[in-house]
Structure prediction request, 319 residues.
Amino acid sequence: MGPGDPRFRLQARKLNILFASTKEKPEFWFPLLQKLLPNDRFFGWPDSNGGDIDAAIVATHPKGALGGLPKLKLIQSLWMGVENIVADPDLPRGVPVARLIDPGMVAAMGETAIAYVLDWHRHFFCYRSFKNQKIWKRRRQYLASDRTVGILGMGELGSTVAQKLRAMGFNVAGFSRGPKQLDGVYCSTDLEEVARRSDALICLLPLTEKTRGIIDSKILSLVKKDGCLINLARGGHVIMPDLLAALEAGHLAHAYLDVFEIEPLPADSPLWAHPGITLTPHIAALTEPRTSVGKIAENIERIRRGEKPLNTVDFAAGY
Ligand code: NAP
Prediction:
């Protein structure tokens, strides 16, 4: 293939790439991206090269960052959740939005989910409180096979968590929009049925019009007594007063919350001091540059070749 060949021109075409994020730092990502895409030019918002941009890499992008980019061919998220991008009124029509499917992030989510399931299953949340009160008391031991963990959302993250829990001997019930099959897992599109079977419920759904507020008093009441809720997806999935009522009534033993409707969680939130809640600052799975930068570069190369990028959002479904 020589310079006269159209494929050569396509491959050699330099792309202008905008990095627009209020959360991720361009000075951190640029050297990693430049190593894999040495011929391309990178711009950090608000410098958008006078609108001459081929691809935008975003994570909670600044307002207006995606408007006025007529040559845009790809919006690549640095995160797996894309509700902020989908809801942007400036989102250019027809430009594909790609989620980041990062193996490092998937692995991290598996570890977080298992840590929380075991914390509840082995009563560690309870022993921490006993320790503070100098109480020497044993609680009943359960086998993993005595427990069913319900997973809401059986996508990249949910299905990985399901397989890890199965390997540890837990029963798993998974809820998804469309029918699924996963070895050894009870899969259903009936949320109430999954909740009814569950001792612990893990939320790994995308936040969409259909899933906002999906975990309410009804669903929580169906989870077995002394169970727990583990929300690793988005704060908007849970009706918080309903969760607090389920904890206060003693129906749920504990809740593990990594995500909140308002982040950072305000200092005056009662959740900070609630004894029935373990909370973390949206760290269940962070984008791992070492395992994700290649995935971003792969999508950039795809648009350079005029191919469809991978892992694009279905706008009708909202995820
Ligand atoms: P995904 O691959 O798109 O999977 C989403 C799953 O949810 C699919 O199984 C889908 O069903 C199901 N679903 C969507 N809408 C539904 C509905 N209305 N009813 C029933 N099921 C529905 O997503 P993912 O990559 O696993 O990520 C899930 C979410 O995790 C992200 O959107 C993000 O918000 C969150 N997240 C959080 C962190 C953190 O650190 N806390 C990190 C990464 C991601 P189908 O299989 O039928 O399509």
